[in-house]
Amino acid sequence: MSGTGEEPASGHADPVAAHADPAAGQAAASEDPGDRVLPGPVRQRVVALVAAMLPDLAHDEVPGALRRIARFAPQRRAKLGGAAIAAQIASDSLFRQRVADRVVEQAGELGAAVRDGSQPAAADPVEVAALAYLARPVGWSGLVDSANQEVRAAAEQDAVAERIRRAGQDVERVRAEAAAARAEADRLREQLASVAADASGLREQVRALTRSLRESERAEHRASHLLATEKGRAARAATDQEAEQRRLRAKLAETETALEVARRGGREVRAIDDARLWLLLETLSQAAHGLRRELALEPADRLPADFVAASAAELPGEREAERARALDADDPARLDQLLGLPKAHLIVDGYNVTKRGFGDVSLEQQRQRLVGGMGGIAAQTGAEVTVAFDGADRMVGLPPAPRGVRVLFSRKGQTADDLIRQLVRAEPAGRPVVVISSDREVADGVRRHGAYPLSADALLRRLSRT
Q1: In a domain, 457, yes or no
Q2: Per-residue pLDDT tens over the stretch 132-171
Q3: Residues 6+ apart with CB under 8 A from 281
């Protein structure tokens, strides 16, 4: 029972304490109020004391619910496992008594005094209440209530002191603002006297300037009338000229844009066509060379007409061709046959393969394991290998791919299936393209574009063989 942590609830008497002292056990049982609500500071101190004791307990003495918490770092133990520790202390009296024995022993004289049911005058009430809650001596609930009252009184005293301090700050601020206001009022009075002295002289200047201003306004009115007429003529001419310039600039910009688009499109089309044509010719060339080597043909010394002239009766008989066993999509031998074709391109649906073959490891390990295995296949067969992953799980700082292996991630808003279809459509007709995916929709889509779809099991069996 001690190894599993399944002990009697806190509502029953502590078996260890009752065995040590039956009278004390009965008194503690009658005083135990069950799931007692502790003050916040007392509860935090109880959790901290128990969390500090967890590593010192034997493995079978730690309840199952706290064994994982016991392995935490000391500063994280009470913070992350506080609720579990408090619940276990409240429900498991045997575990609480084990922890209490060690805590009281470490507390020294204070722990001995608490175990006797007394509270030293100079002791911290929170510490006394925490030790009393764990040890459960006679009258322990009174110690907890006393700590609760002292904590509340201290909190109220702190609140009152804080209000007094803030009130003092407000008084000092008001005094400072009043002094500043008086200084500002004195300064404004001095400025007002200076302004009043200057105002009388300015009035005379204003009268003289007013007369000059009226004359100037009449002259300006006449000049403004003439200027407005000329400005209207110039504005109409400038507007017409600007409109013509804007039209010409817009037409020139459209022409330059169309020309640049045409040039860029022509270059891209030519580059794509050249790449497709070169790859197709290279594939046909290597296919013909491989077929000639496979058939081991020698130069013919007789022509077809020589056989007809020799004897029509000696025509070779037809032999029924042996039907080779068809290989299914899970057979790695079919994959080897397809990769043996010249200029074969192997496209792999990355996560479709890894989650089917080794989905019990992390995504990073899945990618590394698959890409490493594809490096071996590329080195053995000489085929072009492309592995496509969904871009949502793309990681920064990926290790370099092996030689002959291309690793691609789909862009935002695109899946790996879309990227695979795009890769298949980019290949020229006639090039052998093999797509590894157990997704039926992907297989049907690439088959319509001339690719050879194989299941993920075929590749996994091929990788396990290497």
Answers
A1: yes
A2: 777 778 767 777 777 777 777 777 777 888 888 888 888 8
A3: none
